[in-house]
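TASK: fixed-backbone design
INPUT:
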């Protein structure tokens, strides 16, 4: 055998040994017990909650229960401390949401594990309906929707809410926001249970059942972290992203009388300006969808639920917190800057967004009072109609940014632009209202 033949034979032997090892490893049973499919009990709807998964998926369960923790993010924004009020941090909210219950209580959202406690104790609940439980866990789907479709949406809230043993504890509200909110309890595959999202995406031409795995990593969060409204006809949830991801497109949608919009007209009438108002609800999904991260295929899960290891076992963290608290796993896997540089960059985005958002909210509050002054001076509804339309739009843009959970980070350029549009429109309202008072219109 020549020297070349010996070398080739050696290479073949090494390759055979290597690939043989791979085949054996692939054929062997996995040694990570945390990812073996387990049968979850359906007795008394246990599969809808959290406790039933504790023994089968301990790493995921324990990390999910870390959502009980509070504390601010490293930039000083956000966090999940109980009773931390947006109203105290942004007093303009009292004027902007006057006549609506968000002017009474508007607290910083706590971790998902607190969904039941915070909803059941909310001052905003009475006299809400069953549709308020839609994004508080899969009880909406696994119990009500499978039994009778959207009928539950029009029930009194107390009749539709999941059963609980203690409304003041996470353990006592186990059937709120559990594993089945994102996973099929029988297969543990990612799923979208929120049927309003499924229906609205279908109206947009997107079939959820054909989504890729990476798309599902955005959809499982986006099914609830979005802007929505309740159909006046039957209370079902719908989403204005049917018309587009931009707030301008969604505002235009709310101004139409389309079949998808139904009879919905407004969330409330502002008592000072008599303007029919819209309340934006955390449009995180819409803001992220057109972001640089989304364009790169980076989903909510990649940042907020990174892969972790414990005792040699790899698992997906279910502690859905600020990525800056898990920065090595969430950010530094892609970014080559230092930890300190990344935190400083995010803080700059947060600082700038919050400052401009506050200016927008304060200017909108002044606009409500300017319209009230015009009314007191004798301006007619006919004269004020175009002014109120601008005010409705201005507050919509401010609220679209203020209600979003990323404080601008999910899409900094968009959020700054939208706040700017809110400021511009609010100044136009003040100018028009003052002109009416002076009799020049």
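OUTPUT:
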């Amino acid at each position: 055998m020549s020297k070349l033949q010996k070398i080739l034979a050696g290479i073949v032997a090494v390759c055979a040994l290597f690939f043989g090892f791979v085949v054996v490893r692939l054929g062997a049973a996995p040694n990570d017990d945390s990812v073996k499919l387990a049968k979850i009990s359906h007795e008394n709807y246990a599969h809808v909650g959290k406790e039933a998964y504790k023994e089968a998926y301990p790493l995921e369960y324990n990390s999910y229960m870390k959502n009980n923790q509070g504390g601010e993010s490293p930039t000083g924004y956000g966090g999940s401390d109980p009773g931390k009020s947006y109203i105290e941090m942004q007093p303009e909210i009292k004027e902007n949401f006057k006549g609506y219950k968000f002017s009474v209580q508007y607290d910083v959202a706590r971790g998902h594990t607190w969904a039941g406690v915070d909803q059941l104790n909310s001052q905003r609940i009475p006299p809400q309906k069953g549709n308020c439980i839609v994004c508080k866990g899969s009880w909406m789907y696994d119990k009500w929707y499978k039994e009778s479709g959207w009928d539950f949406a029009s029930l009194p809230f107390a009749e539709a809410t999941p059963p609980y043993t203690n409304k003041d504890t996470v353990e006592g509200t186990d059937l709120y926001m559990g594993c089945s909110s994102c996973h099929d309890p029988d297969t543990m595959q990612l799923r979208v249970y929120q049927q309003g999202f499924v229906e609205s995406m279908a109206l947009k031409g997107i079939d959820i059942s054909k989504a890729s795995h990476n798309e599902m990593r955005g959809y499982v969060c986006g099914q609830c972290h979005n802007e929505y409204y309740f159909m006046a006809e039957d209370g079902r949830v719908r989403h204005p992203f049917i018309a587009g991801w931009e707030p301008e497109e969604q505002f235009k949608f709310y101004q139409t009388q389309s079949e998808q919009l139904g009879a919905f007209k407004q969330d409330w009438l502002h008592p000072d300006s008599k303007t029919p108002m819209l309340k934006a609800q955390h449009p995180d999904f819409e803001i992220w969808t057109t972001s640089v991260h989304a364009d790169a295929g980076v989903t909510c899960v990649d940042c907020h639920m990174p892969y972790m290891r414990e005792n040699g076992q790899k698992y997906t963290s279910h502690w859905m917190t600020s990525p800056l608290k898990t920065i090595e796993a969430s950010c530094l896997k892609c970014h080559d800057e230092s930890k300190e540089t990344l935190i400083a960059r995010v803080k700059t985005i947060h600082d700038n967004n919050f400052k401009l958002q506050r200016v927008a909210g304060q200017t909108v509050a002044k606009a409500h009072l300017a319209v009230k002054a015009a009314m007191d001076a004798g301006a007619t509804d006919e004269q004020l109609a175009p002014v109120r339309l601008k005010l409705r739009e201005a507050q919509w843009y401010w609220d679209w940014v203020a209600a979003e959970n990323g404080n601008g980070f999910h899409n900094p350029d968009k959020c700054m632009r939208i706040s700017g549009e809110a400021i511009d429109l609010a100044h136009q309202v003040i100018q028009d209202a003052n002109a009416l008072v002076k009799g020049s219109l």
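COMMENT: Residues 11-34 have pLDDT under 50 and may be disordered.
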